[in-house]
TrEMBL record:
Keywords: Transferase, Ubl conjugation pathway
Catalytic activity annotation: S-ubiquitinyl-[E1 ubiquitin-activating enzyme]-L-cysteine + [E2 ubiquitin-conjugating enzyme]-L-cysteine = [E1 ubiquitin-activating enzyme]-L-cysteine + S-ubiquitinyl-[E2 ubiquitin-conjugating enzyme]-L-cysteine; S-ubiquitinyl-[E1 ubiquitin-activating enzyme]-L-cysteine + [acceptor protein]-N-terminal-amino acid = [E1 ubiquitin-activating enzyme]-L-cysteine + N-terminal-ubiquitinyl-[acceptor protein]
UniProt xrefs under SUPFAM superfamilies: UBC-like
Keyword Transferase part of the UniProt annotation: yes
Listed GO biological process terms: protein ubiquitination
Annotated protein name in UniProt: N-terminal E2 ubiquitin-conjugating enzyme
Domain UBC core positions: 6-154
GO molecular function: ubiquitin conjugating enzyme activity
EC primary class: transferase
EC number: 2.3.2.23, 2.3.2.25
Length: 154
């Protein structure tokens, strides 16, 4: 019989899946997970042929007790925050599946793949147009941001 909350059971299931069938270019920091099942650090390798080829980035996932019905908080951390029109210099990511378009069918793996796809589709390295204002005024938790998707206005 499974023990723990539904959220914890789901996280353990995803963890086992990532360990037993790893996705190329996505690695878990098992030390971070062993300390706290609700906070994961995941390394992703940028795709070959992308503007970020050869670079490795770290993502921090924070899960609350309503996961998977509520999206995780996901940010880039570390020295390498990719310069991208949907990634702020503080590591916050403007990606609809992390807020309005989240569904419990998504997972850590699908979020990482979506972020890799977003990076791969970039045609130039640049920050969002409102990076300076956003990073000075935003909450530390990107889930508290009411995102305005600049692409939607085009």
């Amino acid at each position: 019989m499974s023990t723990g909350s539904p959220s914890e059971r789901r996280l353990r299931k995803e963890l086992m899946s990532l360990i037993t069938t790893p996705t190329p270019g996505i690695r878990l920091d098992s030390d971070s997970i062993s300390k706290n099942i609700n906070e994961w650090i995941v390394e992703i390798d940028a795709a070959k042929g992308s503007l970020y080829e050869g670079q490795t980035f770290q993502l921090k996932f924070k899960f609350n007790d309503r996961y998977p019905f509520d999206s995780p908080s996901v940010t880039f951390i570390g020295q390498e925050i990719p310069e991208h029109s949907h990634i702020y210099s503080n590591g916050h990511i403007c990606l609809s599946i992390l807020s309005d378009d989240w569904t419990p069918a998504l997972s850590v793996q699908t979020v990482c793949l979506s972020i890799l796809s977003m990076l791969s589709s970039a045609t130039k390295k640049e920050r969002p147009p409102d990076d300076l204002i956003y990073t000075k005024t935003c909450s530390k938790d990107p889930k508290r941001t009411k995102w305005m998707y600049h692409d939607d206005t085009v």
